[in-house]
């Protein structure tokens, strides 16, 4: 299935910003976003996508927030630095430029009343933006596959989450547990004030949350809907919701 021609040719499609991570390549810093984080919203949200480099304090984030219609904070192999939420752990790797860019731009978007969605690390970033804290989980278990497996096996690692009745996910997908992939070492410890829990894992961890800033929607999920959005309607819904929050003409599914 692909995005409809009508959605792709609609004039003035909303513009979705996606924050890049930084990595070292041959002694130089590169800014990158994994392809699947770009293709899923480009295909299923009815939006155009622009990459936002992690330029830290060199960027005018209020200016950026005025130019884009929505923000997606993606997953990453790096963790948030613990001092940013009052912690003391040293569970890297870290990407300070990504931290500063994501947290500052997300706050600017919320101040502007524009939607911000988060996936995995982006979910954790949003919790910190709202004043919540994070915890580091064991290296493997319910929330992560054993070390050394292939990327396919890593993303095949899954568990059920239970939507909170009456909230956004339950209204869209029903109250029955849904199976999600699970690839994370950081997790919510305390939920940020103003965020509403949308789903929990069997061990009680918050796996999704939402908020509204005026008319703007905030949604974060701990799992990776971009991994199988083309084949999994429940994952695809995340991007449909993103497009709707941005006022897009959402493609037919």
Percent range for β-strand residues = 25-35%
Class of secondary structure makeup: alpha/beta
Record field, number of beta strands: 13
Return the average pLDDT rounded to an integer: 91
The CATH class name reads Alpha Beta
CATH superfamily: Class I glutamine amidotransferase (GATase) domain
Note the run of SSEs as H and E: HEEEHEHEHEHEHEHEEEEEH
Please count the helical segments: 8
Distance between the first and last residues' Cα = 7 Å
CATH architecture: 3-Layer(aba) Sandwich
What is the CATH T-level topology? Answer: Rossmann fold
Q: What are the segments in which pLDDT stays under 50 over at least 5 consecutive residues? A: none
* Major sheet characteristics: 9 strands, mixed
Tell me, briefly, the overall form.
Answer: globular
């Amino acid at each position: 299935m692909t995005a409809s021609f009508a959605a792709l040719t609609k004039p003035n499609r909303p513009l979705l910003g996606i924050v890049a991570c930084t990595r070292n390549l041959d002694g130089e810093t590169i800014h990158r976003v994994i392809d699947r984080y770009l293709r899923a919203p480009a295909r299923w949200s009815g939006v155009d996508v622009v990459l936002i480099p992690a330029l830290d304090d060199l960027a005018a984030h209020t200016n950026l927030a005025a130019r884009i219609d929505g923000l997606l904070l993606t997953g990453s192999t790096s963790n948030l630095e613990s001092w940013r939420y009052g912690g003391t752990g040293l569970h890297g790797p870290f990407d300070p430029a990504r931290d500063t860019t994501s947290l500052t731009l997300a706050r600017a978007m919320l101040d502007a009343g524009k939607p911000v969605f988060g996936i995995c690390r982006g979910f954790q970033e949003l919790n910190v933006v709202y004043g919540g804290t994070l915890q580091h989980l064991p290296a493997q278990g319910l929330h992560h596959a054993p070390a050394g497996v292939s990327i396919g096996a890593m993303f095949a690692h899954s568990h059920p989450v239970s939507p909170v009745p009456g909230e956004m996910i339950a209204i869209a997908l029903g109250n029955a547990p849904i199976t999600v992939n699970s690839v994370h070492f950081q997790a919510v410890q305390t939920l940020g004030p103003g965020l509403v829990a949308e789903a929990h894992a069997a061990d009680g961890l918050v796996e999704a949350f939402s908020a509204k800033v005026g008319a703007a929607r905030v949604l974060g999920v701990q799992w990776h809907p971009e991994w199988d959005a083309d084949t999994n309607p429940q994952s695809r819904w995340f991007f449909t919701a993103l497009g709707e929050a941005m006022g897009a003409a959402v493609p037919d599914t």
